[in-house]
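dumping this here before i forget
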Amino acid sequence: MTTPTAASPTSALAADEGRPAADGLARPFDFDARYGAGATRGLVLGGGGIFFIAWQVAYLRELEARGLDLSEADIVVGTSAGSVVAGLLTGRRLRWFSTQLELLSKAPGLMSALAPASDLNPSQQRALNLFSGATDNRPETIHAIGYAALAADAAPAAKMRRSVAAALALRGWPSQALHISTVDTYTGERLILTSAAGVPATHAAAASSAVPGLFSPQPIKGRKCMDGGVSGSGIHSDVVSGAGRALILSLGAMSQMPVATMTIQPTSMADEVAALAANGTPALLRGPEPTDVSKLMSPAAVPEAIAMGRRQAAEQIGELLAFWHG
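structure:
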């Protein structure tokens, strides 16, 4: 069974001479494939801009301080903002980055480096509008977004890679548990990058976070790749399907989307959780309180995200310990 929220972008693609050769990176959405079979625990970290990076770091760090270390997950799936946090977690850099977050109220330079320019030129705005206004993830929709992302006159891809590298301070690929999602701008394929891909985790996280129009697509093994959320899923939880249990951190966990947007349907998250359960993977869904989307890319919102993440982790630690070790 493919994901109930979205048809696999690869299913309607005709082979053509411009399509990259098979490299093992593309992985169709498919819960019945049970990609996570054999794993005891899976952790899924979704996208949501700078705000959600800060919330996830604060939440995970508070849980760790209270006795729940989620870096022990057998599979950690990161998408967009979640790819950065997944890299920090699996690379054992969470405590270091959390310390940097504490400095943001006085010196927000670290997170500002990850923020896009505020003034977009017409080509950037066109790509961003296509993405934000997309109500489905049909191949033609993803292709149009991808082509617009390629055409957008955004800052050079290398600039974003340097910013992500500075934020993560990682070398190579920190753990076999780490899985990062991204989307090929030309073919529309969903790619899952692991240690086998042979690329640095910082490059993979930059690709997963390359919001069309805001950032330039990132080169990955001869492909040009964009944000993992341009796919009909903001969490890619099918990657942990078949695991013993899964914790999902998602920006929209506590509020349902009123309408389809950014290729994702309002019922997407609930459908993915149901599909996991149908394949033997009970999932617990958690996330921040409903948040103004205008704050997501603002470094000024980081202190609020930190405070919220810590408070919610303190409130939920008992339930999470029971679930994770149950």
